[in-house]
Amino acid sequence: MTVQIKLSNNQKTQLQSVEAIYKYFYDTLVKGGISAEQKRQIQERFAHRQCLWDESTGKFWQPKHAFLDDVGFFGNRRTTIPSSNSYCEVYQLLGQRISPTVQDYLDFLAELAAEYGNNALNEADKNCAIQVLNRLESQQLLQGVAVNNIPIITANNTLCLAEKVLIPDAHWRKDYIDSNRILHDRVSAKFAKSVGCLSLLKDAIERSKTVKIARNTKSCDWCLEWQNTLNSAELRSGLKRLIFHECESEPILDLIWLAKAQVAAASQINVDLFLSDETCIATDIPGTQHFDEFNKNFQIISSASRYIMLSYLAESINARLGEYSVKNLLPLASIIDAEPCNIHSLLNELRIRSLPSLVTATEPENQEYNISKAATNSRGESSIYWGAF
Prior knowledge:
disordered C terminus; 5-stranded mixed β-sheet; elongated; 37% helix
């Protein structure tokens, strides 16, 4: 549908004057020819002036806000003036471009952010912002330009600097976080990460606030079994094997503290969440594990599932390893859940390399182990539980 723009007599007079100027520019500069430097100076002079008439909108536009290609994704904040325009060459001389660049997308987002501040965008501008962010992702790859800490839209339809926005990759935490900090679900998480958004899973640090120990539950019995294994020399040796298997060098790590470590089931664990700059992003939310550094006590939230608790314990122990933490938690959980006397053969079954310091010259190079018996510990369960990991 074509919209007919009605001009006042005064506007018609102004437009006639402007068209005369366009004709002068065309005859003198376009047809006459100018150098690249002269063209740059002209565009610099007119860059911020509303000097391009758009008949479809009935208004003048800054050259940087007018394009030859369709830019409907900018809403009514930018316009398309097609090449069929009588003074197309003059418009391009003044600064009209064919299509948006990375900087055009960034300028648009900055404009919205300045206008709205901490307030939510209206429906039209929200949709424009999402489309622009999605196009920016492609355009930066096309131009080979990296962008960082840009305004990005949140779940509450506000624009916030990327470094303050969290990718909701931990769904169990999401509902406790201010929606002004959560990335909008229509923006690519991969792109958000590349421009500086943080991970709710990896960048949020838990600090325990409330821990209540469980009493007289089956989970307490499981914790005592795991504690017995944790306290063993076999577990420490097995843990070093796991680290060596991943790092390819024997760890310089003191694990003797595990000999006195305790494991307890908790009926309640509440935590606060912080970012690395000490910003608190959530308080008193449900947690799964706590480690009492002073008493070397692992406290795990009670569950009806043995293997859910085992998973949490494996995560907690792995976190204590610091730079030596392992990527695959299955072998770690398996040796925690085994009788100490079965750990060595269990790791052999899992194809975990032996520590060089434990390999003797008398050992056969390709020794076979009868693992069927060791695979089932005295607790009557397989030491390898694949389903939970």
